[in-house]
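Researcher: We're teaching a course module on how sequence relates to structure. For the next exercise, students receive a sequence and then see the predicted structure as C-alpha cells, so they can try to spot secondary structure elements on their own. Here is the exercise chain.
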Amino acid sequence: VTGGSSGIGKCIAIECYKQGAFITLIARDENKLLQTKKEIEKYSVNDKQVVLCISVDVSKDYEQVENVLKQAQEKLGPVDMLVNCAGTSVTGKFEDIEVNSFERLMAVNYLGSVYPSRAVIATMKERRMGRIVFVSSQAGQLGLFGYTAYSPTKFALRGLAEALQMEVKPYNVYVTVAYPPDTDTPGFAEESKTK
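Model: And here is the predicted structure for the students to work with:
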C-alpha cells in the first residue's frame, strides 16, 4: 500500500490486515510508517502475519521503487494486490498556483502510481493473477473549481487504469479505480487550510 502511513491508504491496510493479508506499507516518513505498523498489528488474525515498512518516495526514481518492491517480494512473496494511494493536493486558482506545483502533483499523484505498478506488473502477469488499485478522486471524474493542479493528475490515473486494464486482463490481472469524495484524512485537513 503506497501512502500507507496515513489516511485512506492506512485504512485500506488495516482492513486487508484484518482479513489475514501480509502488508507492505510504503511512504516517505519512516516514523509515521513505524507508528502505523504498530497500530495495524493490533488487528492480527494469526501469528504469521507481517507488516513490512518501506520508506521511499514513490514519485522520484523508478529504479529505487523497483528495487524496494523486489526486496519486499523477497521477504513476503509476490504482490497479490497493489494499492496506489500516495497522493497530495494543492488548491487555488490556476494563475495563482506556483508552476512547480503542477509538476510536483503530476509526479506524486500520477508517476507515484505508475512506478510501483510498473515494478510489479511483470510478476503478476507471469503468475496470471493480481490486482492493481488506483485511488483517484471524484475530482478525477469532474474538474472542480480551485483544483486545476489536482484534478488533471486524478484524470490521468483514470486513463492509465482504463488502458492498463485492457493490456492485463488476458493475464487474469485486474485494475480497479476508486473515486473517493472529500475524506476526513490528515491530507484533507492540510488541504482545507489553503481554501
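Model: If you want an answer key for the exercise: Residues 51 and 113 are 21 Å apart (CA to CA). Residues 99-127 form the longest helix (29 residues).
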